[in-house]
Design goal:
Length: 97
């Protein structure tokens, strides 16, 4: 694996773990267990658990559902998850414009 690819994976993992931490904080603040929050949102408890552990990349749709469940905006949900990154993930190259 190239150094650049490894750096991208580390950056993405950091973001996923920070998102999971943010979700656990919001869930605790609002008094939800993982199972109760999943039921509240209409998502599976295992899915919530995997997202909180940084082991699943949630879709935009899932992020919207989770944010709605916490009664926050998506921006508030992901606030600060990129904090501490030295290099932002680079976008994939596209064709010429």
């Amino acid at each position: 694996m190239s150094r650049d690819a490894n750096r991208k994976l580390v950056s993405m993992q950091h973001i996923l773990e920070a998102l999971g931490k943010r979700m656990r904080q919001l869930r605790a603040k609002q008094g939800f267990s993982q199972e109760a929050f999943a039921d509240h949102c209409g998502l599976h408890r295992v899915a919530i658990g995997l997202i909180e552990q940084g082991k699943r990349v949630p879709s935009l749709r899932t992020l919207v559902i989770i944010a709605f469940g916490f009664k926050v905006s998506v921006a508030e949900l992901v606030e600060g998850v990129d904090k501490g990154l030295k290099h932002p993930p680079k976008p994939k190259p596209r064709g010429r414009l």
